């Protein structure tokens, strides 16, 4: 076993221990699971705890969550964000994100849930699709390999764990339609994962603004691409430009791939040479401006 693999295995073991240590500290009982791990679970109208898991929770909305929900509701991005979300931050990253705005009642119930169940069930967020599991990734970035692991959430009120139905984690994910969401959100998840791995990095305000725009508002990104000099700055094949202009899903995937490239330099985007030189000139000009301002301030002081 080489040193890199040993270090990776030790890191994975540490994560398992951290997950297991939460058992005595929380009413939410986590377990370390893989895609082939099995669990008992079934949720259906009539079960005593039906919809109890839909209250008092913080639902982070992924880019595809927002796309699916705003489309389901027949709203623009601006309308959906103003009506159904509020801004928060992804834990341990400082990255801004939209979360679902819950009702202001005593239990902070979900605005889309009634006594009969979820009114947007076919387009429910990824967090809801995964329940009662959560997902994590331990990845060796230099090797491009990784291990997915899952955490079972077993809350006291949930009776679904007492049902006879048995699933593997992968079977549950497929049944709940989470695979498509994971595929479309993949580049975005890689950005979030790397940000968490690096810890509380001080991203520039511009990077934070771009992250929030790409994560939450495809209409704004569309304007950013087609109503600016964006396409002049990158070498993008005409066929790709045509696809992202005509297909929102293609544009969404493109936006997330570009976000990953912009924040961490990962991906195959190519900046045009003249655009690169102009950007370098702007940076030099900005540094010179700051130098002059500092010199003037020193003389004043």
Total DSSP helices = 13
Largest beta sheet: strand ordering? 1-8-7
Report the C-alpha radius of gyration, rounded: 22 Å
- Poorly predicted runs are 22-30, 137-144
Query: Helix-strand pattern, N to C?
Result: HEEHHEEEEHEEEHHHHHHHHH
Which range best describes the helical content: under 10%, 10-25%, 25-40%, 40-55%, 55-70% or over 70%? 40-55%
Question: Major sheet, described briefly?
Answer: 3 strands, antiparallel
In whole angstroms, the N-to-C terminal distance is 61 Å
Characteristics of this structure?
301 residues; alpha+beta; three-stranded antiparallel sheet
What does this structure look like?
About 6% of the residues have low confidence. The protein is 49% helix and 13% strand. The longest helix has 28 residues. A 3-stranded antiparallel sheet has the order 1-8-7. It has a two-stranded antiparallel ribbon with strand order 2-9. The protein has a domain of 192 residues. By secondary structure, the chain is α+β, with helices and mostly antiparallel strands.
Topology:
Blueprint: H1 3-21, E1 32-33, E2 38-40, H2 63-72, H3 77-84, E3 85-89, E4 96-100, E5 113-114, E6 117-118, H4 126-130, E7 133-140, E8 145-152, E9 166-168, H5 169-175, H6 178-184, H7 186-198, H8 205-216, H9 218-226, H10 230-233, H11 238-246, H12 248-264, H13 273-300
Antiparallel strand pairs: 1-8, 2-9, 3-4, 5-6, 7-8
